[in-house]
Amino acid sequence: MTGYLVRRLLATIPVMMVVAVVVFSLIHLAPGDPAAIIAGDNVTAKQIAEIRERLGLEEPLWKQFALWVGNLAKGDLGTSIFSRKPVTELIVQRAEPTIALTATTLVVAITLAITAGVLAAWKAGTWIDRGVMIFAVMGYSVPVFVVGYGLVYVFSMQLKWLPVQGYAPIADGLVPFIRHLILPSVALGLAYVALIARITRTSMLEVLSEDYIRTADAKGVATRPKLMRHALKNAAVPIATVIGIGVALLIGGVVITETVFNIPGIGRLTVDAILKRDYPIIQGIILIFSAWYVLINLAVDVLYTFLDPRIRY
Amino acid sequence: MATARSLEPVAAAVVARPKRSALAEFVRRNPTIAVGGLILAFMAAVALLAPWVAGDPIRFQPIDRLQPPSAAFWFGTDNLGRDVYARTVYGARISLIVGLMVAAVAILFGVLVGLASGFYRRLDGIVMRVMDGLMAIPPILLAIALVALTKASVEIVIVAIAIPEIPRVVRLVRSVVLTVREQPYVDAAIASGTRTAKILFRHILPNTIAPLIVQATYVIASAVITEAALSFLGAGVPPEIPTWGNMIAEARLFLQIAPWPIFFPGLCLAILVLAVNLLGDGLRDRLDPRIARRM
Amino acid sequence: MKTTRRRVLQGAAAAASLATFGIRSRASFGQSGVVRFVPHGDVRSLDPIWTTANMSAYHGAMVYDTLFGIDADLQPKPQMVESWEISDDQLNYKFALRDGLKWHDGTVVSAEDCVASLYRWSARDGGGQHMMKRVREIVATGDKTFEFHLEEPYGLVLDVLAKTSTPLCYMMRAADAATDPNDQVTTNIGSGPFRFVEDEWVPGSKLVYERNPDYVPRNEPASGMAGGKVVHIERAEWNIMGDPQTAMAALQAGEIDFFEVPPLDLIDILKADPAIRIEVLNKLGNVGQIRLNHLHPPFDKVEARQGMLALVNQEDYMRACIGNPDYYQICGSQFACGSLMENDAGLEWMENAPDVEKAKELFAAAGYDGRAVVILQPTDIPILSNAALVTAQLLRSAGIEVEVAASDWGGVVTRRAVKAPVEEGGWNIFHTWAGGNAQSNPIALSAHAATGENAWFGWPEDARHEELRDAWAAAPTLEERQEIARQLQENSYRIVTQCIFGQWVGPVAYRDSLSDILAIPEIIPFWNMKKSA
Q: CB neighbours of C28 closer than 8 A, spacing ≥ 6?
């Protein structure tokens, strides 16, 4: 097991290299000039060129890449071209809201989805099954921002139960923290209910048709404990996979939610950085996201061994 | 002889059963596939017939902006005075094209890479690391970056949405290859000197078709929704070309005062996603033997 | 003295009233002293000299101060300057700073600081550069005095120092002003009415300013950027929101106090809300420009440019881009209607717009060969995105091939700097706008220059235009400047430096707890503003 862990951790290095090269090439080879953007409107081409020069953007690409990688090795992710703040500091500043949103969204999505999936599997082939799955899909077929606007209109503007926007750090109190996160998590969570519910349903169905379930039936075990104990535990493996995927997807999905609900998170930071070509931020964040994703995958794989004793590395 | 006589009415009844019940039988046993498929077929037909069924989706008269549905404009006009009905119909084209092309690209590359990776052990290590790397880059961010950094066009949006889907297809194909490769008949084929290509495409590939079809349907749905998300962030298909996604995104400001430019493409988008998902679910239930047995 | 119950009660009452008085005065500063503002964009750079972005100018107005400022009548008046003298030959300007000016780090503002700031600013500013061509040197002559020594008379010195078009002439400490003009300053120490609270800055999301208790306002009523800048609030929190609908909903729910750019189509909803005020602060509004690329075909030929001009139907543009007729006007003047330089010279093109037949003839005369005209379209700025589509449709109606190149604003800004031909990544048309006040100044606005390769994107070239611009700057009286502006406009439409697609105003929306917001073109001031509890 330890050998496996070590091998997997070592394997992250080539993965990160791939990511680093892809990201760097992507943003530097393609046209896009942060100097032109930052200079504002009332400038001449010559002034833009001078700024480019000072920002070190005129250096040959390999040199810029080497510089970046060199700094990476020292733990320095670089400095924002615009705000001159270290990328690491920016990420830390914005991490809490995104992590909070991701966590609450997963809670909402998983709760709704596993309930739906189990119910659908249990009543497979009937109209309940189809109805549940259709409801699940509907949460996904309306774009997140439309759902978001709708929720705000009903719950914030009309009923005035919840705030319209913003994020309250948990340090300022649990109640405002939760109140600000309810609508965003529901809006975003609905989009993932279908995905997780479908996988739950499929896994449950595959497992329910296995012989040992029929044995439990024959033994006269009651329905609910039977479902819970035998079926769900075995179905947990692919579900855990999906959750791993879901977490990664969320990193991208939060972007829209953060915009609509004005949550100062990493998703919004990255999109803004891309739109204004703030290369150090883009490179730094995508690298961090990738590391995060790779680690999550590793955690899920390790979780497999606890959930399914048959799997051994 | 009493037995032979008593069989005749049965025989007659068997012969007399109407032929069309085969189709009706199919629909009865697979309502999800039937409904999903029918809706998709209808949308595809409308998309193909767009030039005959709808007006001009690009021309506008600013003076006509934000008119509610009327005899002249069946679905009303948007904020530039464009005909929402014409744009919705033409939007079917681009949305469907985006969905289908993304699925096609993802599946094509995914199959090639997955087959190779699953079959050749030495390639497997490297390929899976590269795939991990690709998967690690958040899809929406990759898409925004690609579009923002090159230019906005239907082709780039298709590529941007397809790239993050490829690793998933690769994993799927690879897992099938790994399983099938262990089968005795494959061993036999290798032992008897069959060419690798033949093994791959004759024996292994057919086993991937069922899960691939199912996966394709989900990719189509996901692609259309992602396109809407990209348009929201300003990185989707250029706004002159209508897609359901960018129509919704562009008109979102007017939700409270003029909901029709959002409502109609939104409804179509939701129905498309629903239909595709129904189709996918139905196909999976039918094609996965363990589930089919239970139904 | 015997302690009677009465005395105790009296004492208690006195104590209680003192306590409530204390609580009340704290409360009037506590929550109600914070103004939560949603601006039109992010402050991407904190150096308002280095960048010409408007948001940085807003930041500058909070933290920094200017030598002169325009008053409510758009006339330059002293701010940091106490008195000044101009020599009879107009070649010597003596300035004296007023008392009480201190930097946020406690040191006193000196003439050295101002001289250094002037040099750094003029290295970046078009108007400043224009002025510095006539200035031999700027020197400090004492702790609080400095002088300009000119080679030739320049009537616009005070106007240039006071202008609000970016970059404004903000004063910084000498150490900061020593930073190369092509680099950003690394601190945010100014002498302005607010201090920047750097600890609470979340780049891209939030900026916080607190009242500067050491600021000494002029002993005059507030008037534009001049006059006394008295601050009545404790803090200003700027919230960058990416979604205008969210900002609107937040304003209605009372989660923010002041929203700079409510979407015009939704104004009626806000107007119906009794707790919200709608006001047009920037009466000169914004002027839309259609920039043509003079370097490459087809617009390298004046006939083709004239053809484009003949097609410009401002009503189409304004309806498509702005929508609400209450907030736009048809105005063909290159110098913004409502400004001092507005005139009606050379506006024949407006009479029959769009004159498709004439456009076709003109393009034919220019030898148009059927190649696609590339229009840059920023999809993340709705006004400009729609303007691009209007231009495309108008050109197509005249038989011109059009390619609409969609990208984000960053992409547009990158590509418009490319001087190469279209096939090599160049462009033919892009759209943008300038503030009405900036637009009305032929010197300060780069878009008005016709210096060819050194001009603003589009690179128009015309010697006569430059002569006229110089003459405008040298003209001693307002009347003469207005006459020259007429000639400039006539000439502008003769060679078609750029087309104008309309003029509009953007009202701000704020809750009724706010009042007394000054109307200054291109700046949102937080001094003078009051917030009731």
A: C533
Shortest Cα–Cα distance, C118 to chain A (Å): 18
> What is the radius of gyration, based on Cα positions, of chain C?
26
Query: Which positions ≥6 away from C311 have C-beta within 8 Å?
Result: C353, C354, C355, C356, C359, C394, C395, C397, C398
Please check whether residue C473 is in contact with residue C443, taking contact to mean a CB–CB distance below 8 angstroms.
Answer: yes
Q: Distance between CA A101 and CA A257 in Å, rounded?
A: 9
Q: What is the largest CA-CA distance in chain A?
A: 84
Place B17 in a pLDDT band, splitting at 50, 70 and 90: low
Query: In 3D, which of A194, A190, A187, A189 has the Cα closest to residue A149?
Result: A187
Residues B146-198 pLDDT 10s? 877 777 788 988 998 898 889 888 888 887 887 777 777 777 777 777 777 77
Q: Is B158 helix (H, G, I), strand (E, B) or coil?
A: helix
| CA dihedral of A209, A212, A215, A220, whole degrees rounded to 10 | -90
CA distances from C477 to C128, C333, C334, C358, C484 (A): 20, 21, 20, 40, 11
Termini Cα distance of chain C: 44
Distance, CA of A114 to CA of A127 (rounded, Å): 18
Three-class SS state of C150: strand
| B62 to C263: CB separation less than 8 angstroms, yes or no | no
Question: What confidence tens digit (pLDDT) does each residue in C298-352 have?
Answer: 999 999 999 999 999 999 999 999 999 999 999 999 999 999 899 999 999 999 8
Q: Which residues contact C194 (CB under 8 A, 6 or more apart)?
A: C62, C63, C209, C210, C211, C212, C231, C236, C526, C527
Measured at the CA of C239, the angle between CA A287 and CA C106, to 5 degrees, comes to 100
Residue C372 DSSP label: P
C167 touching chain A per CB within 8 A: yes
Is residue C218 a contact partner of residue C227, using CB atoms and an 8 Å limit? yes
- C323 Ramachandran zone, left/alpha/beta (phi>0; psi -120 to 50): left
Cα–Cα distances (Å) from C298 to C295, C313, C530, in that order, read: 9, 20, 54
As a whole number, the mean pLDDT across chain B is 82
Report phi then psi at B132, rounded to 5.
-55, -45
Q: Are C426 and C293 in contact (CB under 8 A)?
A: yes
Q: Taking CB atoms and an 8 Å cutoff, what residues of chain A touch B228?
A: 143
B155–chain C Cβ distance below 8 A for any pair = no
- C255: nearest CB among A47, A93, A166: A166
Q: Would you say C495 and C462 are in contact if contact means Cβ atoms under 8 Å apart?
A: yes
CB–CB of B185/B129 below 8 Å?
no
Q: Encoding tokens for residue C328?
A: 């736009």
- Which residues on neighbouring strands pair with residue C286, listed in sequence order? C435, C504
DSSP annotation of C371: P
Stated as kind and residue range, the H or E segment containing C140 is: strand C135-140
| Residue A140 near residue A187 (C-beta atoms within 8 A) | no
Structure tokens at C523: 């700046």
Q: How far is the C-alpha of A48 from the C-alpha of A42, rounded, in Å?
A: 11
Nearest CB to B256: which of C269, C318, C385? C269
Nearest CA in chain C to A86: C203
Distance from the Cα of C459 to chain B's closest Cα (Å) equals 24
**Strand, coil or helix: C238:** strand
In chain C, which residues have their Cβ closer than 8 Å to the Cβ of B235? 379, 408
**Among partner residues C265, C320, C411, which is closest to B253 by beta-carbon distance?**
C265
- Which DSSP category does C75 fall into? -
Main-chain phi, psi angles of C123, to 5 degrees: -70, -25
Residue pair A113/C215 in contact (Cβ under 8 Å)? The answer is no
The whole-model pTM stands at 0.85
